[in-house]
Design the sequence.
């Protein structure tokens, strides 16, 4: 399980590849204004290449988070354990939900899958992220070897809130930039969680 936890760190590589290669395959894409999910929209020129790497990211992130959840299954601190379990659940909801309901086009077109993408999947992912990260912060501070992860979880939470506030506070021309604070913080924390699971001593279970 320790080695499998590193799948979370590997997932981050594929996520940023999906962003980088997707942007290269999308003429005129404005990362400052457009959301990352525009790269995997059904009608996007980058859909084919970006969705492949995004799928690998989702699979690896789910595998890594489940492995970490099993690593910490027996540790003391219910809040910490439950936080990791909920974070793993969030990754499953994100991976399955966004695969089932990709954007129909850039922005919001009002179709059924767009409504599911924005108002069902995204809301579920955001709520699970906030609750799970908060529990990891509270539980991690109280347990040996979990304080660094708690600090990183707090930083991820701060970036998520900054991005969410920034989306409403800044002009639409900066939507993509603000969104990346929220999205990238989750991806990077997943990588950190994978490293934590790999380094967790076997006697800590």
Sequence:
């Amino acid at each position: 399980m320790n080695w499998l936890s590193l799948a979370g760190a590997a997932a981050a590589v594929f996520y940023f590849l999906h962003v980088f290669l997707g942007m290269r395959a999308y003429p005129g894409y404005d990362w400052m204004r457009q959301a990352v999910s525009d790269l995997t929209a059904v009608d996007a020129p980058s859909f084919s290449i970006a969705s492949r790497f995004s799928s690998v990211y989702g699979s690896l992130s789910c595998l890594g988070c489940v492995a970490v959840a099993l690593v910490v299954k027996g540790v003391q601190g219910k809040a910490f354990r439950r936080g990791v379990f909920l974070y793993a659940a969030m990754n499953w909801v994100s991976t399955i939900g966004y695969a089932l309901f990709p954007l129909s086009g850039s922005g919001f077109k009002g179709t059924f899958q767009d409504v599911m993408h924005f108002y069902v999947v995204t809301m579920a992912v955001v709520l699970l992220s906030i609750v799970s990260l908060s529990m990891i912060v509270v539980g991690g501070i109280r347990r040996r070897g979990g304080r660094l992860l708690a600090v990183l979880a707090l930083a991820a939470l701060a970036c998520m809130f900054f991005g969410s506030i920034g989306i409403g506070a800044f002009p639409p021309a900066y939507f993509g930039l603000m969104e990346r604070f929220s999205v990238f913080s989750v991806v990077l924390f997943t990588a950190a969680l994978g490293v934590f699971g790999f380094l967790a001593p076997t006697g800590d279970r």
